[in-house]
Amino acid sequence: xxxxxxxxxxxxxxxxxxxxxxxxxxxxxxxxxxxxxxxxxxxxxxxxxxxxxxxxxxxxxxxxxxxxxxxxxxxxxxxxxxxxxxxxxxxxxxxxxxxxxxxxxxxxxxxxxxxxxxxxxxxxxxxxxxxxxxxxxxxxxxxxxxxxxxxxxxxxxxxxxxxxxxxxxxxxxxxxxxxxxxxxxxxxxxxxxxxxxxxxxxxxxxxxxxxxxxxxxxxxxxxxxxxxxxxxxxxxxxxxxxxxxxxxxxxxxxxxxxxxxxxxxxxxxxxxxxxxxxx
Length: 279
Fold this sequence. Notes:
It is built from seven helices and nine strands, in the order βαβαβαββαβαββαβα. The protein has helices spanning 12-23, 39-44, 59-73, 96-124, 145-165, 221-233, 245-269, and strands at 3-6, 27-32, 49-53, 78-81, 86-88, 127-132, 170-177, 189-191, 240-243. Strands 3-2-1-4-6-7-9 form a seven-stranded parallel β-sheet, sandwiched between helices.
């Protein structure tokens, strides 16, 4: 039995993961900005589930939530940074305060939780940190530049973190989901109020009023939850885990294009080295 700490557990992947963890007999600290949204799960598993209010942008709540989970269950074995939301805007359209809030939620909140949780993981030389990213990290689309910037930053930080804490017995897993049938493209998606007509055929096509993907996504969040748990229970755990056949297809295509571009321009790249014969 392990103890999981899951942020953003009121809906989508977070809710599916919390339910799956508890169904399998593990303990779970399930967090949401409004704990009433997760009370039903606590009622089902009163001895193994603890609901804690948590806005990941509030440092005091982060500290209190980790303390509450540790007090109740003794240790936290798996931290899942799932809380976050999407944001649509052309780069020029975005409002600075909206971008600041997006980074506070999607990047700095997870960082705060990681830093708050790591001392106990280091002390016992074990633990797992799961950071939920996006296929947008390796491949961004018009209108998603700021959102995918938060995820690319989270992945870069996770890469360094993995190399820092791996020797201490702590694992880091970055999850890159494709399109899943959650509230991500619905209730959880925000966008800029500024609309610039010149971007109508690029970023404009992906504004909420023009996006018809909500409710038709191929990914099943319950299967995604089971895949994450099974991966962590395996003998080998990858650093990155793609979720969804669409994720595999799109990310593979992106990396193939990158390799082709590297090869095509390698003759230019190599001209910047010092000429050792001249030196």
